[in-house]
Amino acid sequence: MNQQIPYPFCGPEFRRHPDPVYQQLMSEGPIHPVQFPSGVCGWLITGYDAAIQVLTDPRIGKNHALGNAQWRARASIMPEPHHTRLQAHMLHQDPPRHTLMRSLVSSAFAPARIAQFRPRIEQIVNCLIDEIHAHGQADLMTSLASRLPLQVLSAVIGLSDAHRIRFQPRWCKAVQPVGPRDPGRRAYVQLLTELQTFIDRVIAEPAQGDSSGLIAQLVDAHHAGVLSYDELASMLFQLLVAGQEPVTHQIGNSLLAVLRHPDLTPFWHGCTASVDTAVNELLRLDGAFEISTWRFYPVPTELFGATIPAGDPVIVALNAANHDRSRFECPHQLHTDRSPNSHLSFGYGRHFCPAASLAKLEIDVTVRLVLEKLRDLRLACPIDQLQWIPAVLARGLVSLPVNFTAA
Prior knowledge:
The chain has 18 helices and 9 strands. By secondary structure, it is of the alpha+beta class. The chain has a single domain (12-403), classed as CATH 1.10.630.10.
């Protein structure tokens, strides 16, 4: 095991080119002590097989209550009372609570149901493209990728138009918390307060949306005593906020990959079955979740030759696993026909993303229609001038400027 703190998980160079760091770490072994920009120290798992082992380890938990004092002292997490009210969703729960909460949302995101939303998603994407079609240039992040997920989610989970219009895009930054000493802490707390107020209003007025939709069902579960109020609020936070940002980033990452391979443009006009395989490859190539969220062993645990203290955070490098040469041949290349392709971009095991089918459909529709309607599409700047968000867990572009032939 590498005993030294490796390359820090921050800085523009790492954001642009993280893979050399991951390849170096994987060559040294599956587990590495790391320090994040917040000062949090933990254990990073690299390599595909090691990732699967940890993600399915029944001894490890997700509940923040398992974190030790050292983690709590430095972790850049939401301040109270927002942490209690907005971080009780199923991503931070273990069985049996996780099992119950997941069962309440799984049918809403079942692949067969999600497939029915293809015409609606196509309509939304077409409208967004039509707004920029005549200009010959655009930022695909602000004009498309950041606007699509909320509109789609609203239809899928039954959020009313009135609530959707009130939602502020900047609230999505709640998933990028800042530490107590950060100059932006006060603004961050204000953002959380506004978001909590919005969620409280959605809970109080669920009938404004689809009375048979997921939001109404979750509110009914609260009234029936199945969910506490904080669990309900937190699940809506996960759906409305944590459910948007990764899709936005994944759309941007996918469009960039396509722009880097203009020779494949004709392929995207092909059959649905082929494109489904290709969408999985886009997810594998550059996933929006760089690394997993925290996991904790409740007791000191031997893992890959290291002794993990109880409550130390363990994080899985999902994108490193997706580029493990022992699992994926030529992992840095885009192979639209790659099969099998058991990537980890949606996680693995009981915490596999329940909305994976929806995200894949949004990527599929967006890539198809962008290439179909924006002719001669190309990057408007050198690729090394693109800026990546400075988040630790997420990988996404700040902007994606393009030129194309105007209508």
